[in-house]
Amino acid sequence: MKHVEFFEELRKEDVAIAGGKGANLGELTNAGIPVPPGFVVTSKTYDKFIKETGIFDEIMDILDASDVNKNKELQASSVKIKKIITETTMPDEIKNIIIEAYNALCHRIGKDEVFVAIRSSATAEDLPEASFAGQQDTYLNIKGSDDVVRYVQKCWASLFESRAIFYREENDFDHSKVYIAVVVQEMVNAEKAGVMFTVHPSTGEEKILIEAAWGLGEGVVSGTVTPDTCWYDKEKNEVINYKTSDKKVKFDRDPNTGHTVKVDLPEDIREKRVLSNEEITQLSKLGKRIHKHYNFPQDTEWAIEGGKIYMLQSRPVTTLGKENNNPKTEESEERIIITKGLGASPGMASGTVKTVKNTDELDKIEIGDILVTVMTTPDMVPAMKRANGIITDEGGVTCHAAIVSRELGIPCVVGTSEGSKILKENSTVTIDGSKGFVYDGKLAEKKDSKNNESTHSLIPNPPITVTEVKVNVSMPEAAKKASQTGADGVGLLRTEHMMLALGVHPKKFIIENREDELVKALVENILTVADAFYPKPVWYRTLDAPTDEFKSLDGGEDEPYEHNPMLGWRGIRRELDEPEILRAEFKAIKKLHEEGYTNIGVMLPLVQHPDELKEAKKIAREVGLNPQKNIEWGIMVETPGAALTIEDFIAEGIDFVSFGTNDLTQYTIAIDRNNENVAKLYSERHPAIMKLIAMVIKECNKAGVKTSICGQAGSMPDIVEQLVELGITSISANTDAVAVVREVVARVEKKIILKAARKALQE
Ligand code: PEP
Ligand code: MG
Q: Which terminus of the chain is more solvent-facing, meaning fewer CB atoms within 10 Å of its CB: N or C?
């Protein structure tokens, strides 16, 4: 076995040395398929590297010592091992083998240095490569021998990505027996590229599916670009259907740096058809040849440069199931994805597409329909309640549609960018609110759809935890279901939805001297929640009204237009500018307190300076509320400003803080939470956010101020685990997550006690 093999030397049987990808490229090359030239740094080289440098034992020791069921430990071990592999100097002998192969490749192509793609290619015994797919690295546009060596090393490290480690542990694979090969292949500077399935990927029908976009194939494979789709009849040899999509961006090689860059496409190119009929025919011919060669349907990647087609990869279609060739029934198992977005509210739901372009059209939504719109607005809530599922073009997982649908228990997919344009009115679709997929036709509904009571929320005899587990409520009508979770109170009662359900802008009530009507409506709504939870605490959050969401209300015509409403006139800053509304809210709370609902506390949104807290308290006193004396009083920590100066807020006087991680995330990492273009970067798991939270918990614990969380991160088990370890006082989760969160909290608390007991025994 050699340390490096050119594709010409490899066959499909050579998986053990070349990995699945490498062996396949060898097989294709030898079958006469146009594959860009390249070589494989075989598993023998990896083995030599880890053994000769002595890091093998070091790696195994780290793995032996870590408990992969502890997320933090798993992540830490993965980081440590990857660092060891990438930072250990490669012995000259190994380095030279790789450099010589690279130079030979350049020589063959007739250039001093060529751009190459470097990909890991797993070879684990008995391990289908698909299990590793997506966990291995791909580096594009690498040039020069030093960089080639460096990226080969990085690919080796990918064998110890945390998910790969976890997968092997879960499946009892021996870490010491997994190897990795690395494919180094000339980079095609594609003008167009994409994927091709040599049969219908779900039904196995004899139709070829090609997806195509401009530039490198990265855009299609990563899902960043919605590609053109083309169906080709293999028997009649003709294009059955070609759908051109709006391809907003493409991936290209930057001519100066050689790096892959994402480029916005001009209007006239975006919607232009990518493939000619001639190109489709040529591609299909190649597809048929490859399929025949392997005698099995193939899932391939292709690229076109200078009019020449290259096949970059081919592997068996793994999506084919027992449903192959099933006749299409009314409740079909055929899964054709029409569009994708972000899974915002879990569950599967089928129904008739009804696209709502403006609020005048809301009446067309009947019970069981799928509501499709650019973005939901609060006045759509009644129609949302009738719908079986919701699909939006815009938004991330904390947008209006996402929050409301989670609370209503309606499956929802947001940020499809095209749903309202491409979904056919009155057609039947099925949405998967977990994966973010929209399928053609009616698929069998899963147990977790809205028609089934949430099983995990209603567990009898839930564990008792010291850290309180509360629930978020946005709509009073959802309070009963929320209280049935047995939650320890309401950690966030949002006002926006109840205000907006009135259909009239709160300012209009004030202008028309109808403040009493506003107060009355608020009292009724808050009472429904306070009653359902009495005597458990309910933290009422004062109005956080972004201008864009309130515009459609009667009286909202004068809402200013803002470029980025998320950074604009909302939260406490707005309420202090319009104190009449805040005063009305405080009057409602006072009335409820007078009626005995002293379980209601007040929480101020989006504060960034203690003066805002001070001013709000002053207004509360004017209406007869006495912050911190007869009413629990707190702030949301949603801005890095508030987090970093928490001691000043404590000094001004608060009973509690609650982390609004939906906003804290967007302000900390500069990602507009409602902008689907950047949604993929939106993550509460960015370490900066936990740093801010940890700091605040520490300061608050010192001062005896309670801490809580009510953002979406409070429903994420791994984050909850960290928060309990940090000593948070309570967690407020979504209704459907309360039971799971409670279990996580109980387990972490037990671990903490156990650890302390063990330590005490040792002392
Ligand atoms: C938050 O920002 O995390 C939060 C709970 O508030 P909202 O989602 O209503 O802005
Ligand atoms: Mg917020």
A: C
Contact 715, 694 (CB under 8 A): no
- Residue 168 belongs to what domain range? 4-186
Cα-based angle 686, 692, 696 (whole degrees, multiple of 5)? 150
521 plus 664 within the same structural domain: yes
User: Does residue 445 lie in a domain region?
Assistant: no
Tell me whether residue 593 is one of the annotated catalytic residues.
no
Q: Is 584 in the same domain as 526?
A: yes
* Strand order across the beta sheet in which 730-733 lies: 706-709, 656-659, 633-637, 600-604, 538-541, 490-493, 468-473, 730-733
Ligand 2 center to residue 733 CA distance, Å? 14
Identify whether 332 is part of a domain. Answer: no
Candidates 493, 491, 544; CA nearest to 713 is 491
CB distance 227 to 302 below 8 Å = no
User: Does the beta carbon of 661 lie inside 6 Å of ligand 1?
Assistant: yes
* Segment (H or E) for 248: none
Q: Which atom of ligand 1 lies nearest, measured to the CA of 496?
A: 9
Residue 380: how many CA atoms within 13 Å on its side-chain side?
A: 28
| Cα distances (Å, whole numbers) of residue 164 to 104, 175, 309, 416, 559 | 33, 10, 34, 30, 51
pLDDT, tens only, 636-657:
999 999 999 999 999 999 999 9
Radius of gyration of the chain (CA): 29
Q: Is residue 622 part of a domain?
A: yes
The CA 20 to ligand 1 mean position distance, Å, reads 45
Q: Rounded to whole angstroms, how far apart are CA atoms 73 and 62?
A: 10
Residue 634 located in a structural domain: yes
- Please write the tens of the pLDDT for every residue from 486-528: 999 999 999 998 888 788 999 999 999 999 999 999 999 999 9
- Percent of the chain residues past pLDDT 90, beyond the cut: 59
Three-class DSSP labels, 538-589: EEEECCCCCHHHHCCCECCCCCCCCCCHHHCCCHHHHHHHCHHHHHHHHHHH
